[in-house]
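Let's study a protein:

___
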Amino acid sequence: MIYGFGEHRRQLLESEVQRIRAEMPTLGIERAFLIGEFPKGKVKPTTGLEFLVVHNTDAPYVSRPDFFTSHILPRAGCTWYVYTAEEFESLGSDDPMLTRALSFGEEIYAA
């Protein structure tokens, strides 16, 4: 058993959130929410970061995360859920991911 691993992992994830947040304006992100286990304070060896972002793009939904992975080069596991501003407004409570972000997520950036 490795003692202090949870604290080390938490610090790594926190520093990664700060680094990614600093890059958001240059990537055209309008809003960003940190969702999942990390903002709830739950950190395990497999804990990664989950972001829901509003970013205007013409890319198909399934390929939108590729842009962020290739531009940010995450140092920890990251999952990206990318919505256009129109989708964010129109889907609202009909989309479980948006409901989760707005109800339980932590808004970490707004342009």
Q: What stands out?
A: The chain has one domain: 5-110. The chain has four helices and four strands. Strands lie at 29-35, 49-55, 78-83, 106-110. The longest helix spans residues 5-23.
